[in-house]
Amino acid sequence: MIKRKVILVFLLAILAISVSSNADAQFWKKKSETEKSKHKAEVEKKRKEEEKRRKEKEKEREKRRKDDDKRRRDKEKEKEHRRELKQKEREERRKKKHEAEQPKPKLEPVKKEKKEKEKKDKKKPLPIKKKEIKYPNSVIKSRYRIDVLTPMYLDDLVKGQSVTFKDKLPEKAQPGMAFYQGIKLAADSLKRAGYQIDIYIHDIASAAETPDALLSKNKLDSTDLIIGAVATKDITPLATFACKKQINFISALSPADGGVKNNEYFTLLQPSLKSHCDWIYNDVVVKYPGRAISLFYRTSTVADENAYKYLTTDKYTPMVLNTMLCKRLPTKDSLRRMFDTTRPNIVIVSVLDIGFADSLLKQISRDFPTVHFEVYGMPTWSAIGSLQKANAYRNLTVTLSVPFYFDPAQPLAQYIERRCKAEFGVKPSELVCRGFETVFWYANLLKQYGTIFNTRYNDNIAAPLTRFDVKPQWDKNNNLLYNENTHIFLSKYEGGVFKTQ
Question: Taking burial as the number of CB atoms within 10 A of a residue's CB, which of 94, 98, 308, 477 is the most buried?
Fold first, then answer.
């Protein structure tokens, strides 16, 4: 009996083990199938994602290809148009040459005399001879003094023993402080080079050192040279003082002349608006002879009115101008009447307001996308941010006249950058470079030629960045006005990239 029970228990145990083994097998089989299904789903998901990315890439490549094809077609169209224009111009030249070679009909004696009389009447009067500028003898010294006037606002920046600003200089103080930094770097360089020159800095934003205060207190009586980053209202009294003392006064940053006349001791280092307009006019006349030029102008401000006047009066070389007064932005129809949509157009805009200029450029580019425009603008336009964007004016080439340009590849520019980083921990701005070059050049002129260096202005070897070209300026009657630097750079912007010539 016991034996039977033992056998029965043993059989039951075997049966239980068998059932358990089958259950485990079924569990693991089911788990394996689930994992396979999940893996298959993940693989399928990845495949779909890759397929989606592949299709997106194909779409992007197709879009780029279409854009490239469009640009290529536009370029080919423009090239073809230019070829047609050149062919047309060649035919016109041949026609004119043929007409010029044809024998002219003989005029009747009376008509010939009449023609000669008319020619004689139209003959331009002989130019009035310019007066000779007579300077006193230059004084050679063992040590010179230069007084620099610039607004730094130190009274506002420093109160007691602490500064009044946190991380950044107030905007009103930045130009004067940058100009001062350049002067400081130049003074240190001159000292290391062995120059015997004392440089006095006057913060003209301080009530105690305004130009009027300096003059009334005789603080400039012993100077050999005055360099001023001063406002227009301060130019006249300083220029009058310089003329009386027979010392040179250099207006370093302002293009305004303050109404100064008959003063050989006053030099305008930043070219005037008239010089900028003359430079633009001459460049257009040389590059596009005989072409019709579209001129957009305003007269709502004195500067805009002057720019228009400088471009349209007292010009000996003729230019065919189609003018439009822009009290507001012109309509597309009015622009269409100004332009020749079958060929590239030459445009001059004598408006200094950068907001209006930017809006006008965008409108021209948008309304005439298939026409190319060569646009000449004012020196203020360098502050237009859109000029740095590649797609701002796709069919426009914008040329600006600028008073200064500092090539970073120049050895002197690299030296200034190293010294500025070492001294002040920052890259030099344009005003730092201008302060350095101005003081460095004039210190060299003093050392080489003494206090009266005006006849030696052609020696600009110590100003390799700007290559100043200082010349006497005369009025219509050939009376002396003052000296002015007339060297101007032209910066050309196209597709967000600019190059300066």
Answer: 308
Residue 330 and residue 435 share a domain: no
Indicate whether 265 and 337 sit together in one domain: no
For residue 155, count other CB atoms closer than 10 A to its CB.
14
- Dig out the tokens for 245 from the structure: 């003392």
pLDDT in tens, 107-149: 444 444 444 544 444 444 445 556 789 999 999 999 999 999 9
Strand 266-268 relative to strand 225-228, pairing? unpaired
Tokens 């331009």 locate to 124
Gap between the Cα atoms of 130 and 75, Å rounded? 52
| Among the listed residues 242, 210, 212, 209, the one whose alpha carbon sits nearest the alpha carbon of residue 225 | 242
Q: Is 136 within a domain?
A: no
The pTM of the full predicted model, rounded to 2 decimals, is 0.72
Q: What is the pLDDT of residues 237-287, one digit of tens each?
A: 999 999 999 999 999 999 999 999 999 999 999 999 999 999 999 999 999
- Helix extents (H) in 142-290: 154-157, 174-192, 211-216, 232-245, 273-287
The end-to-end CA distance of the chain, in Å, is 121
Domain span at residue 234? 144-270+407-468
Tens-place pLDDT, residues 52-78: 888 888 887 887 788 777 777 777 777
* Same domain (yes/no): 262, 296: no
Whether 15 is in a domain gets the answer no
**Residues linked to residue 325 through DSSP beta bridges, in sequence order:** 297
At position 162, the amino acid (one-letter code) is S
